[in-house]
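Something for you to look into today, if you have time. Just paste the record in under my message, thanks.
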Amino acid sequence: MRRIVDEHVPGYTASVRDRRLSPWFDDECRQSRRRSRALGRRYRRSCTAKDRLAWIRQVRAMHALYQAKENRYWSDRIAANAGNCKKLWRSMSSILLSDRNVSLQPLPDVTADRRAQFFIDKVNGVRAATENAAPPTFATHAGQRLCSFCEVSIDDVRRVLLNSPPKTCAADPLPTSVLREVVDALLPFHLGYVQRIAAGRPPAGVTEGCRHYISPEETKR
């Protein structure tokens, strides 16, 4: 019996992905997917242009329905959690897929020699690719030029600070959220910063940046 079964129905290895359905996937999406699969099976049996066109139209309508359902679901969820920062951040994490537990493979040991060799090979590759290139040509700009900055008022600085995205980096002396709360008290200092930068004399520390080292293996990904 086993020999007959193996002859007519041979065994094979199948990979099954355990993936949950999206929260916006409802009965209407299931019916649309069922119609798409039925039309696909009909086209594979008949191989006619009419069935193929019907299948393509249904698949496109299915994807449009998916997109509309997803957009409506996340828009309603964000609007419902607008007053709760914790729930709102959880919703945004789900949209950005940052809440998934992605296990990264450990990188091999990165030594100073390997890092230096990586940059040496990269520079040599660029030199070899541009060895026979023609010399660059520069054209003189005859249009408008920026020769000086316009003076700004303290109201202009305040409007820019409040309308800018509330982002913070390691080089900031204080978080942007705190700056917004005491913006009126710090406006004279910010106006002086802007005036010094416009005059080409930025204060010490303003031109410094933050460095983030990336291993050569990460740049190849």
User: Anything to note?
Assistant: The chain has a mean pLDDT of 79. Residues 21-96 form one domain. The chain has nine helices and no strands. The CA atoms of residues 13 and 31 lie 30 Å apart.
